[in-house]
Sequence to fold (545 residues):
Amino acid sequence: MPITDFLERNRKLYGDEVALIELNPEQKDTMRLTWKEYSLIQPTVDAPYRREITWRVFDEKANRCANMLLSRGIKKGDKVAILMMNCLEWLPIYFGILKTGALAVPFNFRYSADEIQYCADLAEVDVLLFGPEFIGRIESIIDKLSEHRLLIYVGENCPTFAESYRDLVADHSSAAPKIRIEDDDDGAIYFSSGTTGFPKAILHKHRSLMHAALVEQHHHSTGRDDCFLCIPPLYHTGAKMHWFGSLVAGSRAVLLRGTKPEYIFDAVSREHCTIVWLLVPWAQDILDALDNGTLKISDYKLDQWRLMHIGAQPVPPSLIRHWKEYFPNHQYDTNYGLSESIGPGCVHLGVENIHKVGAIGVPGYGWECKIVDENGEPVAQGEAGELCVKGPGVMTCYYRNPEATDEVLTKDGWLHTGDVAVLDEDGFIFLVDRKKDVIVSGGENLYPVQIEDFLRKNDKIHDVAVIGLPDERLGEIAGAIIQIKEGMTCTEDEINEFCKGMPRYKRPKKIIFADVPRNPTGKIEKPKLRRMYGEEHLVAFENQK
Fold:
């Protein structure tokens, strides 16, 4: 059963109910207000741009998109890329692509022109739908990109080198196309983060997409009365697969453009959101704003907010303990996953296991997990090894890259994640670090996540990243890039004194005060930091010799 069946079911059962809401606090437009004059305005954000569609309109828009693509020669097995910021058109276009039997191929909105070209070639994209934010990048590669490809522009004032989406879909039927889709049909191509070079294309079948939807609904008991606040970019498996829980339940969801704490609280308050998925930086920003008084819980209606969950990266236990001080009644969950395992959920903590904060959890619904050594043999309980997962959401392959596929995917279906983990006595998995991020210093393995978790306990630290820096004697040393909270000051001596609470061999040997860069899904960009500070540290070291 493809996930498009859920959309068609929701149209029949809940056609006149709101499915999706788009909020853009940066763009004010009072002429678009609905829903009782948008709850009589109030809280702190003045009348953000707001649009909504019902389940009936959602499905009709998807069908018009599908029929338009079919009329332009798109067929089962073709690839259609989406390069758009989060907006009300994104998901109907995604489902329209799926309804044709073609593969949906979401692009990262941060891609440079060269990366757009590379990914379009790698995935053998036949059509690219893009938004106004990307006109310049597309135009700079138009000679190569437009060859044998249809370029469709989604927005106002269509550029001359593309065709207007609005004009193309206007005359097409809103009836569902008669395309049969099977579980074993290819459904989508997602891209790896590209942290070690250009991204790899990750191929998933429709079975994977369906399993992601069932996992999310099962883990968080998403019901008809829930409202999910979706903030991360929809091109990423995490955001979309968490929204799939709302699709299964037939419940509302809000697409929020912007991550400021007041935007998040305002959206939760006005739209009566009950489930919010945050990234670590956004949760930390909220806590900082509550701590310094610039954000006040009493200014908002938050009683209905029942679940806060975090994914995409290890979650500092101190952050959750701090969160529970402000929100003692919140359920909390953390989700672990990769694009290769169709996003979040192959491991999850579970709302009933908050006493195990710090763990990424136990195998998710329908998933198996094991931790192995370098030879692929299971390690003893408490020993560090590589986390492997197996289940219906594992990718088919890295598209057109059999060598890379063979490196991570075994013949019996186990996916090697590249993450180092340990299993405790109760069967909970704790993530230690990325295999490639482990620092080997004087023969000792240092796990940056453990050092970062310790440093985050310092009240002056807003964010921190620990990387390996070259050292002639030890091979590598731990360097800590520390971002101090706004309005505070801190010295290297203070950090060194604070670090005396750690074993000596784990203490950072180099302290750097600077911003910590993160990608749109909240992951620290450690390759970027290694390029910036590793080379700088090596030059300084050589000059001292």
